[in-house]
Amino acid sequence: MKIALQKAPRLHKGIPWTACEPFVENTRATLIHRVRHVTTHKIGDRWKAHLAVHALCGTSFTGTKKFTFLSEPPAGKLVCARCEEVATKRNMEPSDAIAGRHVHLGRTIAVATCCADVAAQGEGNG
Known about the structure:
The protein is α+β, with helices and mostly antiparallel strands. It has one domain (3-120). Helices cover 15% and strands 30% of the residues. It is built from three helices and ten strands. It has helices at 81-89, 95-99, 116-120; strands at residues 3-4, 15-16, 19-20, 23-26, 32-41, 50-55, 60-63, 67-70, 79-80, 105-106. The strands form three sheets. Strands 2, 4, 5, 6, 7 and 8 form a six-stranded antiparallel β-sheet that branches. Strand 4 and strand 5 form a beta hairpin.
């Protein structure tokens, strides 16, 4: 199932996609995102074309091979909670309805790992 995409704002060059699958998996990321817009960029003959993928949550990715566009998120994977929140505010179909089953939502958070020894010794925050 393909969905219509928004046109990228301030698009100077590149070929905007008009439709694609509603979800994207990036092999270098944890979450499955909801697609907002996709553009194919071809800089010149010396380089391969690459994609710029923008998600509803505001995150974006660029690359050539690391994307898989999906009609539904794989079972057990987490869909970006922020993407789902934005989709709901825009009256878009929820991920559960698209997939025809419950879809797990999630987020990733940054965790400081450099000062674990100092914190464990009670010497403060760095």
